[in-house]
Amino acid sequence: MQQLLLDVKLTKQDKFAAEDFLPLSSSFQAHQVVLSSVANSLSGCLIIGPTGVGKTHLLNVAKQYLSVNVSDYELLMLDDITQLDYVDEKIKYLLIDNIKQVTKEHQELLFHWFNHLKSANGKLILVAEKSLDELVELKDLKSRLLTLQQAIINYPSEKDLEIFILKQAFDRQIEIADDVLNYMLLRIERNFNKAEKLIDKIDEESLREKRKITIPFIKEYLN
Predict the structure, then answer these.
(1) Alpha helical stretches, state H, 70-221
(2) In the chain, which residues fall in CATH 1.10.8?
(3) pTM of the model
(4) Cα(169)–Cα(172) distance, integer angstroms
(5) Per CATH, which fold does 157-219 belong to?
(6) Tens digits of residue pLDDT in 176-217
(7) Of 30, 52, 99, 215, which is least packed with CB atoms within 10 Å of its CB?
(8) What does each C-alpha distance from 96 to 25, 82, 123 come to in angstroms?
(9) Helices and strands in the chain, H and E counts
(10) 125 in helix, strand or coil?
(11) With contact defined as beta carbons under 8 Å apart, do 124 and 113 qualify?
């Protein structure tokens, strides 16, 4: 592999762009499920996986595809289920990120939202670290959620992480040599969020210090 001289700059608003989602081996099937849920007459889906594997990005992909044919006032996206309120009849598409626990109150709200969206031919797309079946006790809600497709994202493989790091470097015009890349892959977690933060730090400090990205340089920021 040759050193990469990279020539595209990433802007913050592009972070979750649909075209920048990488359907890698760990997320390919989940990506297909979400696109199918958006394009077809399905009630929605559940995006499930551990922290840092791309669930939020995939939820934003769904939002961007829905936004092509949906008015802004018909679509509601929440960063957390704690933001969920009473049913708004205008909303036909509800997307909720970062579900870690669901209180009895929010289970009841979600139950009413599910029924509303179903009758409105809308969609419900939820993101969680584990199955909603494990998080939900309300039987009527659980039975409804189990009708949704599951888009499961696994931990990335080493190859997935390599592709992700090179893509992040490419977007920041960072040059990474083979030995540096291999050193990083052996020492960082299988977590895209942490890998991205490391690349951000490398980018910032290499520019500030006017240093080439080498293994001794990387060592300073791996911890």
Answers:
(1) 104-119, 132-135, 139-145, 158-171, 178-185, 192-209, 215-219
(2) 157-219
(3) 0.88
(4) 5
(5) Helicase, Ruva Protein; domain 3 (1.10.8)
(6) 999 999 999 999 999 999 999 999 999 999 999 888 999 999
(7) 215
(8) 25, 10, 11
(9) 9, 5
(10) strand
(11) yes
CA–CA distance, 144 with 140 (Å, rounded to integer): 6
pLDDT tens by residue, 121-169? 999 999 999 887 789 999 999 999 999 999 999 999 999 999 999 999 9
Going by DSSP bridges, is the β-strand pair 75-78/93-99 parallel, antiparallel, or unpaired?
A: parallel
Element containing residue 62 per DSSP (H, E)? helix 55-67
Q: What is the helix (H) or strand (E) element at residue 45, kind and residue range?
A: strand 44-48
- Reported residue count of the chain is 223
User: What does the block give as tokens for 23?
Assistant: 């359907």
How crowded is residue 56: how many other Cβ atoms within 10 Å of its Cβ? 17
Listed in order, the ranges of the chain carrying CATH 3.40.50.300 are: 27-152
Residue type, 189: E
SS3 content of the chain, % helix, strand, coil (to 5): 50, 15, 40
Domain 27-152 is found in CATH 3.40.50.300: yes
Sequence-distant (≥ 6) Cβ neighbours of residue 207 within 8 angstroms = none
